[in-house]
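Sample intake — Transporter
Collected from: Flavobacterium rivuli WB 3.3-2 = DSM 21788
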Amino acid sequence: MKFCLYILFFLFAANSFAQDQLSVEDAVAVALKNNYDIKLAANDLKIDEQNVSLANAGLLPNLSGTLTQNNNIQNSRQTRTDGTVQSLDNARNNSINYGVNLGWTIFDGFRMFARYDQLKELEKLGQTELKFTILSRVNDVMLTYFNVVQQQQMLKALDTAIVISTQRVTTAKNRFTIGKAAKLEVLNAQVDLNTDQTNFLRQKEQYENTKTFLNELMARDLTSKFVVADSVVADDKLKLADLMNLANGQNPQIQIALINKRVAELNLKQVRSARYPRIGITTGYIFAESESSLGFAKENSSRGLNYGVTASINLFNGFLQKRNEKIAKIQIENTDVLIQQQTQAINSQLISAYQTYLTNLELVQLEAKNVDIAKQNLDITMEKYRIGTITTLEVRTAQLNYVNAITRNSTAQYNAKVSEVALKVLAGNLSF
């Protein structure tokens, strides 16, 4: 049996070295570079960054060039005050105006300044949303990576089951040949071997599908071959108080709620700006020329500078201003409620996840002991089977107990790692 296990380990190791070694750090690095959701969130942030400008807030003047040309052909008739009548068919009248105009709002009740500050907050919102997207995708990559590790460990356990079942078939045949066992014992051993091989193929299918999904998350060739680490080790040093402190200052969902409150407060400032007068200045240099086939002046031209000041103030708009301010204040109250709700929800998730984390750490230790016990039981059972002092049912039970112990141990390690990653994601401090 030990010889078979050595051969199996050698073949597995040879196949592993033939493929690229992929660490969880490498998987995350590839995902950060290629993942489509992260790229989209990064582009959204670039848009927010471009929106932060004095011009977009309305602080800069507008300068425009204008050109207007009108041409018409008319049958005209004019009667002067002295009774003289003039008429002309197909009279042509042309005019052209062109120039440069500048308009600048120099005061709008501080709305433009509030708008500029709001654009900065929206940029921060984009940065926080990008961080949240990164945390979510890195979380997905890490959990999928550790799931591949778990699937790999389960494959090894099923490999071991096949080796043991193969040895049972060989032993049963030898016992049948020398007349110490019935044909039924050989058939039972063969059925168990076939069952183990079926389980192995099903597990291999799941293993390969999980690897494909990991390639999808990393946004690379879905058929890329790789091998992962042999085991999963969870960080057992996490403290609930530290995690809650980190979450209050770093959790992206809480930060998004806080930023939305500042955005709402700046929106109220913009609404209140309508109570103040709006003052602007205008200036420009205009060229005007016209031609007329009929009239006192056949040609006319002018050019020159124009300038002026515009001012307006809302005196009454049916109490809409008061309504708009009330709505803006209610929106601020809603953001306060959302902050409290989000903080409460995150803290609740942290407490529940931390209890799960502690349970999973205990299970890791317990299942590791169970593997040792199941291995000793299997070794003793196989030795008794060789000398014919135990039934095949007892052998199969010991074999399944060992495989199940390995599977539970692998699952416990994976669940502990999942709990660790979940806690760090909630704290907004996911690291390796």
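Post-analysis note: Strands lie at 20-21, 62-79, 85-107, 226-227, 278-292, 299-312.
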